[in-house]
Design a protein that fits this description.
The chain is mainly alpha-helical and 227 residues long. It has seven helices and three strands.
Length: 227
């Protein structure tokens, strides 16, 4: 039997943490999706209230995928799933509030948001191919492709780290605005905070996975050079 190398933990631990984070998010998402907010406000109404409060005029587009809710800084559009847009749940209120605050970050030119947007344009396509570029280099023993793959992976790692303050700040802003607009009471705020906290866990784990994969590859190359 081949001996277990500790460097595999850089891959194994983040994978298990990723599964756990996704499970927590789905559990929280579904639990609070069944609890209506006390004012009976649907997701689209929450979005319009937030947009009006922040003097923003951006289109609200509905998507079919139940977990696909996001603000697109390139097209300046807010995308909400039908499940969130047409629902008056605690989950809907929290997710909509969070996504609208991304639009506010974009409008105000928050430095991490600006940096993430710039990186997203260049890494959106290249980042997807970084593992393939690296494996191509390994298979054909081509140092250029190997190091190009590492550089791309490093870029994706930085992107994941930059996303953390953006997401945390959006959640903080969402809770503050909900309190200011008085459309959720303290009990609802606590439930919404739970939903957003579990969602934030996926970003931390995602960053950990990027870091783990990057360190694993670097360690493998370092060990290969020692042979």
């Amino acid at each position: 039997m081949l001996p277990f190398n500790p460097i595999y933990l850089f891959l194994i631990i983040p994978i298990f943490l990723g599964w756990f984070a996704q499970w927590r998010v789905r559990q929280s998402y579904q639990k609070y999706l069944k609890i209506p907010n006390k004012k009976g406000i649907k997701g689209t109404e929450v979005a319009k209230t937030f947009l009006s409060h922040h003097n923003l005029n951006i289109p609200i587009l509905e998507t079919k995928s139940p977990m696909l809710n996001y603000y697109n800084p390139q097209s300046k559009t807010l995308h909400l799933s039908e499940q969130i847009a047409e629902n008056d749940s605690i989950t809907s209120m929290g997710i909509v509030a969070h996504e609208v605050e991304h639009a506010v970050q974009d409008k105000q030119g928050c430095k991490f948001m600006v940096l993430r947007n710039k990186m997203a344009k260049s890494l959106a396509l290249m980042g997807q191919f970084s593992p393939l570029v690296f494996m191509w280099g390994i298979f054909f023993r081509n140092a250029i492709f190997i190091y190009l793959g590492i550089i791309l992976l490093f870029g994706m790692t930085i992107f994941a780290l930059i996303s953390l303050p953006v997401e945390l700040n959006a959640s903080k802003r969402a809770l503050q605005t909900l309190k200011k607009l008085n459309i959720a009471d303290q009990e609802e705020i606590r439930m919404i905070a739970t939903v957003l906290r579990n969602a934030a866990l996926t970003y931390f784990v995602g960053a950990g996975q990027r870091i783990g994969t990057f360190l694993f590859i670097v360690m493998v190359l370092f060990m290969a050079h020692q042979i």
